[in-house]
């Protein structure tokens, strides 16, 4: 039936495997090795979502080809929910792109997360966002892996410490990528206690944090309803001026017939005066 069918020749043949009936419900249980084999195909993939306007597939692939030149060209897949799956050749390429960020396209920040089997694009993906966090003037004796992990855990879930922090080639501040819940307040300072019980306040600086609307539960959004409810400053009214009316005498009231009778007489006077003036000019000449 499928002979000489191009779509069938490029596909795979399926077979019937009877499902199980458990408590009157149909249940399907795939084999672990098959599931693991498919997971291995996507373990080098990143989930990419652009905050703000929707970007087409061509725009996204063009951006990747122009800006992610340090790695081999990845495969890009567009999901109908508005995010992309970017599949790299290996884990090194994936980490290279993930840890060099952050990235922006058309002034819209790009959220990058590593793909996982239980990934679900929903409210959690748009609230738990990897952000780069700086810890200025962090004492050098707290730059160990354990100390950095504990300090970063006060902000969120630690993911990665950049190369300059790991190799201590820049010691003015420590920089770490931390998955932060943007719906919760992020402290600007945290208390650190040394092994002797002495405490100090460590400053926390976020390189970028998206706007979050508590009412609409959306990032990079300001609710218009909240803005409209703000009280406007009262407008200044002009001082009220009292208007008074006065009566002025403009002469006796004439009827329409009297006005008509005076108009021809006035015209005759004007014509006569005009002729006299004309004769006087001729005599002068």
UniProtKB/TrEMBL annotation:
Polar residues bias (residue ranges): 243-257
Protein name per UniProt: DUF4283 domain-containing protein
Region of interest: Disordered: 226-285
Biological classification of the source: Eukaryota, Viridiplantae, Streptophyta, Embryophyta, Tracheophyta
Domain DUF4283: 39-121
Residue spans of biased composition, Basic and acidic residues class: 258-272
Alphabetical list of PANTHER family matching this protein: DUF4283 DOMAIN-CONTAINING PROTEIN (PTHR33233:SF17), ENDONUCLEASE/EXONUCLEASE/PHOSPHATASE (PTHR33233)
Entry superkingdom: Eukaryota
Position of the signal peptide: none
